[in-house]
Design a protein that fits this description.
mainly alpha
Length: about 210
């Protein structure tokens, strides 16, 4: 009887392990288009906002990042509707929570600094006696890299892990060397390395 219980426990652990590995493979396969979509959105909006910032009114245009999230989620919803439906798994929930948290934090920070840029909020209310636009891109780039790297660790994808590390650390220090609208060029590069490159790589792997 004790042997049967041990076998049952071992089989249960094996089933759990197989389920986790299967969900990791599924998420890895289905993550290609969302990564490319979000990366493309960030690149386009970064360059567009940088242009408007430089030529038409300054940092007030950072408010457009809120529009990015609306367009991004709408496009992601369409991608989800078209691809094969898969059961909700623990691994899938973790990945979803990671990127939802990233989106809430970074969108909130971006909108606050957008309000500061257009004069709705005073800088002293947020950061007394400090002009902090020089830090915001570095912080968001670091969050970007952390989100990408954590996702890569959860689904065991080395390419996503490496791209996340490069994008996060490189973007953090790279943005410190630029000011004003030129920081958004760094953001575009971070999105390219941290989202689009992994997405295209996974897409090519899926086609083999």
């Amino acid at each position: 009887m004790e042997v049967d219980n041990n076998l049952t426990a071992e089989r249960s652990l094996e089933i759990i392990r197989e389920s986790i590995e299967r969900s990791q493979r599924t998420i890895n396969k289905n993550s290609a288009l969302p990564l490319i979509w979000w990366g493309g959105c960030v690149v386009v909006f970064s360059l567009f906002i940088a242009y408007l910032w430089k030529n038409h009114g300054g940092p007030v245009w950072n408010m457009l990042w809120a529009v990015l999230w609306l367009i991004g989620y709408a496009g992601n919803w369409m991608i989800d509707k078209r691809r094969e439906s898969v059961p909700t798994t623990f691994v899938g929930k973790i990945v979803s929570y990671v990127w939802s948290t990233f989106g809430i934090f970074c969108c909130g920070i971006g909108m606050i600094f957008g309000f500061i840029g257009c004069g709705v909020l005073p800088m002293e209310l947020i950061l007394p006696k400090v002009y902090a636009f020089g830090c915001i891109t570095s912080v968001i780039s670091l969050c970007f890299g952390m989100g990408t790297t954590i996702m890569g660790l959860v689904i065991r994808n080395r390419i996503i892990q490496v791209c996340g590390l490069i994008a996060g650390i490189g973007g953090f220090f790279g943005a410190l060397h630029f000011s004003g609208h030129t920081q958004l060029y760094v953001m575009a590069i971070v999105a390219l390395i941290g989202l689009i490159v992994p997405g295209i790589t996974i897409l090519l792997q899926n086609q083999k």
